[in-house]
Amino acid sequence: MRLIRAEEPVHPATWRLVWNEHVAEFSDLPRLQRLACMDALVLVERELRQALRPRKINLAALGNLVPHLHWHLIARWEWDAHWPQPVWAPAQREADEARLRALREALPAIDARLREVLEQRFAAPPAVAGDQITRE
User: Fold this and answer.
1) Cis-peptide, bond into residue 84, ω within 30° of zero
2) Hey, where are the domains in the chain?
3) DSSP state of 17
4) 32 Cβ contact partners less than 8 Å away, ≥ 6 residues apart
5) Which alpha helices (DSSP H) does the chain contain, by range?
6) Which residues, in sequence order, are CB contacts of 104 under 8 Å at separation 6+?
7) pLDDT value at position 129?
8) Cα–Cα distance between 102 and 87 in angstroms, integer?
9) What Cα–Cα distance (Å) separates residue 83 from each residue in 40, 80, 125?
10) DSSP symbol at 129
């Protein structure tokens, strides 16, 4: 697995947890790999909740155009441009540039923490060796 922070302009606290091997659907994974994937998803969500204190974390497993298993983790707040609608819905308000700037400044430290906890948790199992955080 690898964790990638996406550079979304009005939702910079967006990550993708990507399964390394090519599988189109979560149900294609063997049981132990599904458990490892869910464990990683929960670990990242908990870290994001603690670090960012969002109102909600949106989780989505999409990938219609690129059928490769990945989960989207998107931190959401009442002040974000699309709240309470999904991030792909029409904006409800202008982006709060001051809050977005402060959020962007905090993200490198959060990336480092996520890298650390994933490496600690998944260093040994061969099915998930090589966890990493990269940026797109």
Assistant:
1) yes
2) 2-135
3) E
4) 127
5) 31-52, 97-122
6) 12
7) 37
8) 20
9) 26, 6, 38
10) T
Looking at this protein, which amino acid is placed at residue 89? Answer: A
Helices (DSSP H) in 55-133: which residue ranges? 97-122
- Fold for domain 2-135? HIT family, subunit A (3.30.428)
Q: In this structure, are residues 43 and 115 in contact, taking their beta carbons and an 8 Å threshold?
A: no
pLDDT class of 132 with cuts at 50, 70, 90:
very low
Contact yes or no for 19/70 (Cβ under 8 A): yes
Residues contacting residue 47 through CB under 8 Å, at least 6 positions apart: 110, 113, 114, 117
Determine the distance from the C-alpha atom of residue 22 to the mean position of all C-alpha atoms in its chain, rounded to a whole number: 19
Residue 118: Cβ within 10 Å count: 22
| Closest by Cα among 82, 109, 117 to 1 | 117
Both tokens of 123, joined, read 């260093």
Backbone angles phi, psi at 39, to 5 degrees: -60, -45
Q: What is the tens place of the pLDDT at every residue in 79-127?
A: 999 999 999 999 999 999 999 999 999 999 999 999 999 999 987 544 4
Amino acid at 132: Q
The arrangement of strands across the sheet holding 14-18 comes to: 56-60, 70-76, 14-18, 2-6, 133-135
